[in-house]
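[step 3/7] inverse_fold.run input=structure_tokens len=76
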């Protein structure tokens, strides 16, 4: 029984990643899959930022634009 409690405590101690950080990570990974280069991926993400949007919507907007770019690309 002690083992179960230790496992539960370890699970509870795991910090949760904020939603914006997860969306931003997904955006960078999507950009990386499009460009094949991490530097180019971050540059692409930066170029897609819409300064007119509130900060909490920035990552979602970039990810949405990246999905549109990916969908227009030819499939292998």
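[step 3/7] decode complete -> sequence:
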């Amino acid at each position: 029984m002690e083992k179960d409690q230790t496992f539960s405590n370890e699970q509870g101690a795991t910090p949760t990643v904020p939603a914006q950080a997860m969306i931003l990570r997904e955006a960078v990974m999507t950009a990386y899959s499009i460009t094949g280069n991490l530097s180019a991926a971050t540059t692409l993400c930066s170029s897609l930022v819409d300064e007119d949007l509130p900060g909490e919507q920035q990552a979602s907007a970039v990810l949405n634009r990246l999905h549109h770019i990916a969908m227009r690309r030819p499939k292998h």
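[step 4/7] annotate
The chain is about 75% helix and 0% strand.
The CA atoms of residues 1 and 50 lie 53 Å apart.
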